[in-house]
Amino acid sequence: MKNVILVFVLFLGIGAGNGVSAQNTELPPGDEIIRRANERDFGAFSQETIHMKLIGKDGKARERVTRAFNKKFGEERRYLMVFVEPSNVKGTALLTYDYLESSKDDDQWLYLPAMRKSRRVPAGERGGAFLGTDFTFEDIKTQSRISVEDYSWKTLGIGDVDGHPCYTIEATPLTQELAKELGYAKVRIHLDQELLLLRLSEFCDDSGEVTRTISIRDFEQVGDIWTAGTLEAKNLKTGHSTLFTVTESDFTTEIPDDVFSLQSLERGLPNLPGRP
Questions:
Q1: pTM for the model
Q2: How many independent structural domains does the chain possess?
Q3: Cα-to-chain-centroid distance, residue 126
Q4: Cis amide prior to 173 (ω within 30 degrees)
Q5: In which domain, by residue range, is 50 found?
Q6: CA angle 257, 259, 262 (to 5 degrees)
Q7: Centroid of chain to Cα 231
Q8: Mean pLDDT in order along the chain per 10 residues (276 residues)
């Protein structure tokens, strides 16, 4: 995914639906809004602790804790998510390389400690559920971002999410093959009109029905960098949801390059910075 919006860390109150104003010819086109959002400062590196809560339709919840590391390598970004609790998923990790070149496919590897090896996540699985959550591999890879090149764009107007005026933009995958890989026919994104932060994504099937949402809220400005405190994905068909809560953020401590190497991943990540 290239030229994307970064708001995770990643990885939206479902306040949209209060109505979208009629299309205004003075509103900028969707791809222009996205490109403007990409010009924000995302920081050279970051590390976070993220608490996950997987909530069933009956309200019963399972909890996990992960650590997330993000670093810029020139124009490329690398992202690592590592599970630290509970014991049955401890050491499981996902490593992502996000390349600048549009002709180069991004890379993503899943490390399973029980197997003591990693496997590359193929494009056909990008729309699949990530380790039992309501986020997909694609969501984790893009960290709640939207690619410019993968979609055609239409600015629908100005809507409202939790009292915040937002651009409402419809993105349609360019090909049927891409739509099949991603698992949806269209996505409506709601981008804060002032801050250009993504607040809500609504994923639609072929009939236009919203089947899944990702909402981002509790934004905090750390220096010049805006970061989200809460991300929530809801599967509207099953009633299952997943809540990510960021409890620790660090944008100042340098992260060694080898943390983001495939070799380090396959050694079980013995040299992660920060707390054990």
A1: 0.85
A2: 1
A3: 12
A4: no
A5: 30-263
A6: 105
A7: 9
A8: 40 38 69 83 86 96 95 88 93 86 73 88 88 91 69 93 95 93 94 92 96 95 87 96 94 90 81 62
